Amino acid sequence: MKWLKRTGLALLFLPVIVITIYILYDIFGMCVNHIATGRQTNKLQVNLEKEIPDIEIISVYSETGNTSGTGNHVDCLSAIVFSTKMQESEIVNKMSAYYEFDEWKCYVYQTEDGNYLFYLNTSAPFVDNIVGH
Q1: What is the pLDDT along the chain (133 residues), one digit of tens a residue?
Q2: Sign of the four-CA dihedral 101, 103, 109, 111
Q3: Burial per residue of 84-94, b for 16 or more beta-carbon CB atoms within 10 angstroms, e otherwise
Q4: Which helix (H) or strand (E) segment is 117 a member of?
Q5: Full-model pTM
Q6: What percent of the chain is helix, strand and coil (3-state, nearest 5)?
């Protein structure tokens, strides 16, 4: 009779345990995605500073989430605005050792005020996470 009571309690708490595990997994994925975005942005900044000697970083922006607005996926977005005397083609040439430029997920362009924007958007490690919904 005691085993029947224990089995009944286990079946009663099983949905609570499964839901708790799912929520903890989503929270873990969310933390990992934010850490990945921070690392990507820091690495981009280090690479820029290493390859462009006269660089002056103006602003650094990063975002973790669904950046395109389509579907439910998670992206790691890094955008750095900087100034330099180099031309856009020289910047792309130097940075192509680290990044694959495709005019959609990774590109450099000159803004109206003469500065440059380096835009990098990659897929997050936990691509189907609550952050992307």
Answers
A1: 788 888 888 888 999 999 999 999 999 999 999 999 999 999 999 999 999 999 999 999 999 988 877 777 899 999 999 999 999 999 999 999 999 999 889 999 999 999 999 999 999 999 888 766 5
A2: negative
A3: bebeeeebbee
A4: strand 116-123
A5: 0.86
A6: 45, 25, 30
